[in-house]
């Protein structure tokens, strides 16, 4: 079941795989026109473009790295040229690595911030002139920001920062009718975990199972839709009770 979002013009960053892919396809199935960016060309992006075409609607699949300001400008320019405005932006693009803090290279810290935090800043700031009245900004955070995860201090720092970013933006953009929320997924099955890792994580979750990308996509669609018209500045945990 897809939440209806007919006619919404939505930009989804990092949409060729996992959560971003499910979000893009779910919004399209709900009637939205979707622009999706991906960092690398390949089968994932190609198949996404085919699936969006099969669903129907006016969709864009653009190669862009949100960590590169020039790519962000080109991405937003493509949205402007196609639609003239955006009704929602879903900032999902992100990177993650697992390194002990004592051995964390400065270059990896900088790379993670450039994509996860500065990339979000660039996309949101660049999108401001395109936002329609009542637009929705959805920032994909992580439950890790609240609980902490060993070997991910750099990743967790970026996701924690999104909470404060959203709280400040909701105050600043609220008078314009623009809503800003963070969606913080728990452990989601993106088929990248071993069987042993899956069992271990399941034991930590109240519902005793991993979440599906489509379960995140449903909540994103709610935040994009007019059903959440009085919801802003919040961090919504979708984590199965982790």
Automatic annotation (TrEMBL):
Residues 8-190 form the Ketoreductase domain. It comes from the Bacteria. The keyword RNA-binding does not apply. InterPro entries: KR_dom, NAD(P)-bd_dom_sf, Sc_DH/Rdtase_CS, SDR_fam. Gene3D superfamilies: NAD(P)-binding Rossmann-like Domain. Keywords: Oxidoreductase. One of its GO terms (molecular function) is oxidoreductase activity, acting on the CH-OH group of donors, NAD or NADP as acceptor. Signal peptide: none annotated. Belongs to the short-chain dehydrogenases/reductases (SDR) family. This is SDR family oxidoreductase.
């Amino acid at each position: 079941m897809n939440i209806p979002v007919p006619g919404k013009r939505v930009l989804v960053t990092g949409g060729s795989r996992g959560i971003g892919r499910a979000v893009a396809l779910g919004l399209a199935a709900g009637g939205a026109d979707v622009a999706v960016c991906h960092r690398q060309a390949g089968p994932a992006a190609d198949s996404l473009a085919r699936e969006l075409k099969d669903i129907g609607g006016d969709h864009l699949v653009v190669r862009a790295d949100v960590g590169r300001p020039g790519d962000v400008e080109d991405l937003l320019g493509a949205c402007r040229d196609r639609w003239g405005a955006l009704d929602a932006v879903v900032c999902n693009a992100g990177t993650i690595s697992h390194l002990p803090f004592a051995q964390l290279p400065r270059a990896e810290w900088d790379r993670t911030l450039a994509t996860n935090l500065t990339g979000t800043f660039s996309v949101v700031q660049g999108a401001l002139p395109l936002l329609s009245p009542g637009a929705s900004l959805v920032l994909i955070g992580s439950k890790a920001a609240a609980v902490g995860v060993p070997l991910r201090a750099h990743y967790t720092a970026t996701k924690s920062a999104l909470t404060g970013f959203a709280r400040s933006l909701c105050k600043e953009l609220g008078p314009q009718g623009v809503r800003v929320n963070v969606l913080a997924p728990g452990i989601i099955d993106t088929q990248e975990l071993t069987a042993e890792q899956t069992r271990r994580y399941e034991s930590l979750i109240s519902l005793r199972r991993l979440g599906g990308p489509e379960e995140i996509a449903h909540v994103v669609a709610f935040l994009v839709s007019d059903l959440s018209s009085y919801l802003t500045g919040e961090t919504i945990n979708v984590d199965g009770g982790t």
